[in-house]
Design a protein that fits this description.
Elements lengths: L8 E10 L2 E11 L4 E5 L6 H8 L7 E6 L2 E2 L5 H8 L2 E4 L11 H12 L4 H14 L15 H12 L6 E5 L7 H18 L2 E5 L3 H7 L2 E6 L2 E6 L1 H5 L4 H8 L12 H6 L5
Parallel strand pairs: 3-8, 3-9, 6-7, 7-8
Antiparallel strand pairs: 1-2, 1-4, 4-5, 9-10
């Protein structure tokens, strides 16, 4: 059952990795209802690994992920599937099926997971497409869409079942600034119109500044900063400050693992 008073997404002592090798260690974070939270960090810091853990795709080595009040990995398979149906996911690669129309792509989760009449399903898909600015594109092939249009169609599909949380992996990656700003506006419209909580993995500073209520930055396998964007921009942590002001790291670079972070010495 959803805990409306508590965080929508929370991690406590979370460690995630491959085999027994941790990528992330002792992660604590909380995402409040109705907010847009950005997960930040340099390449290889574990952003996508954390997102996989939050969405049920990467079981932790230790700790817990609480989603909508429930311990995600303590549930049995049926319970986990039921919980994850209350979420949506927009992948970095939009994952649209070229053999299906845009409407059929958006409608697919409803067809797979419910027994609603086809007329209702199609109307639901049309409503979501209109919300992302794609009214009139229902019968188009995904292959005929621009990159930004494909991203918006993927967001429509992620929201088709009115999820309480939507997870997005690099939603504006590879898009020009004008198109990326349109994706940002779409995400804000989702939050404002539907009351959905949004968790985004991104490294795009303009998007972070435009839409994020809070940001959580990873480095060295841990959370190194959390707060508003304004707070992180003025952080005393040099790696955090450099990220927001796009200052190059020293030749040795920032630590890339928990062990590195303890032993790494910066060059003068």
């Amino acid at each position: 059952m959803t805990d409306d008073a508590g965080p929508v997404v929370a991690c406590r002592g979370l460690s995630v990795g491959f085999g027994q090798t941790p990528v992330l260690v002792d992660i604590d974070l909380a995402v409040e209802r109705g907010t847009i939270v950005a997960l930040l960090g340099g390449s290889g810091c574990g952003k996508s690994t954390l997102l996989r853990a939050l969405t049920g795709l990467q079981p932790p080595l230790a700790g817990e992920v609480r989603l909508l009040g429930d311990d995600l990995y303590a549930l049995d398979a049926d319970g986990r599937r039921g919980l994850l149906r209350r979420t949506g996911m927009a992948f970095q690669q939009d994952a649209l099926f070229g053999s299906m129309s845009v409407l059929d792509n958006v409608a697919m989760p409803v067809r797979e997971l419910t027994r609603l009449p086809e007329i209702v399903i199609r109307e639901m898909a049309r409503i979501k497409l209109a919300l992302v600015g794609l009214a009139g594109f229902e019968h188009r092939s995904p292959n005929s869409l621009s990159g930004g249009q494909r991203k918006r169609a993927a967001l429509a599909r992620a929201s088709i079942l009115d999820p309480e949380v939507v997870f997005c992996d690099e939603p504006s990656a590879g898009l020009d600034p004008v198109v990326a700003a349109g994706i940002d506006d779409t995400l804000k419209r989702f939050r404002d119109a539907l009351g959905v909580t949004i968790v985004i993995v991104t490294h795009e500073l303009e998007s972070i500044r435009a839409i994020a209520d809070r940001a959580i930055m990873l480095g060295g396998g841990r959370v190194i900063a959390a707060g508003t964007v304004a707070e992180l921009e003025q952080s005393d942590d040099q790696d955090v400050y450099n990220f927001f002001h796009r200052i190059a790291a020293s030749p040795a670079g920032p630590a890339s693992s928990p062990l590195d972070r303890m032993t790494h010495a910066r060059t003068p």
